[in-house]
Amino acid sequence: MSRCFLGIDIGGSSIKAGVVTDDGEVLAGQRIPSVLNDDLEAGLTRICSTALELIEQSGVAADAVQAIGLAAPGTMDLEQGVVFHPFNLPGWKNVPLARLVSERLGLPVFLQNDANAAAYGEHWVGRARGASSVMLWTLGTGLGAGIVIEGRIWTGAHSHAGECGHMILQMDGGPPSEFGIDGSPELYVGARALVRRYSAAIEEQAGSPPPCRCEVTGALTPLDIANAAAAGDRVARECILESARCLGVATVSVMHVLNPEIILIGGAMTFGRDETELGRAFLERVRDEVRRRAFPIPAERTVIDYAALGGDAGFIGAAGYALSCLDAHCLDVS
């Protein structure tokens, strides 16, 4: 029997988890509502009960599960297993998450940033399998990023490396950030940026025939804008492709610092990826901006593509990260 690992990806909208073998096969997976509105104790109870359910669903013996990989948002101390400030989980500040989950489930727990875990998943069994280095953008409410170099997640000296969505693109006059990091790529590319850009464009066209050709109920979302673009709304399409252009600019900065072999785009806001005309146009606009701005050799040779694992990348990568940590620990002991 292969060794198995439990991967848990704690997001703002949902928790995704699964039992994964040591060669990357998912034996059982589950998505449940987020712990966003739970206090810490209730959230931990939900995470741990989901873990036990998945082990039972997978059909493996309990002792076949060797360790748990836990992916969480925000800044953290990876060595200590502490989450400092998960932006989309208010109230979960300075939480020793790895220790708390380990105590409840009786297994080693290895904490990792969610975007880093997703990047590791793509490197391990996804689109970047076999690549020496990969950088992954995760597009959603914000703009996350993860970096894997020579099979290892690049975490930096203080567990804060890879935060490419918070580079500074514009020193003065850029979009303001609630965290004080004004002018960052996240403020040009993320979901809130797209909604803000489209809303401003519609306001400028006040008095003209309404360009949105899809029904919008409640607050405007990126999905509404994507539907409008697919229905022929030129303004919606231009706003989406402007996000792609800004992502291309940020991608060039990453290329000039890291020169990775492959750069992937994943997350919830990828507009159908290669399966839709809009998704293909989005990716091509990113590539166009890279070709226009990057040094010639990396511009020609760097692979830029969509990620392959979709919403499962986080928990698969977390499980793979736990495997790598456990093996490294065994080597250190021997």
Summarize the structure.
The chain has ten helices and twelve strands. The protein has helices spanning 40-58, 97-105, 114-125, 186-189, 191-204, 222-230, 234-258, 277-293, 296-301, 313-333; strands spanning 4-10, 14-21, 26-33, 65-72, 75-77, 82-85, 109-113, 133-139, 143-149, 152-153, 262-267, 303-306.
Task: Walk me through the structure.
This protein is an alpha/beta fold and 334 residues long. The chain is globular. The strands form three sheets. The chain has a five-stranded mixed sheet with strand order 3-2-1-4-7. It has a five-stranded mixed sheet with strand order 10-9-8-11-12, with helices on both faces. Strands 5-6 form a two-stranded antiparallel ribbon. Strand 1 and strand 2 form a beta hairpin. The protein has helices at residues 40-58, 97-105, 114-125, 186-189, 191-204, 222-230, 234-258, 277-293, 296-301, 313-333, and strands at 4-10, 14-21, 26-33, 65-72, 75-77, 82-85, 109-113, 133-139, 143-149, 152-153, 262-267, 303-306. The chain folds into two domains: 4-120 and 311-333, Nucleotidyltransferase, domain 5; 130-307, Nucleotidyltransferase, domain 5. Helix 7 crosses helix 8 (277-293). It is 41% helix and 21% strand. The protein has ten helices and twelve strands. It starts with a strand and ends with a helix.
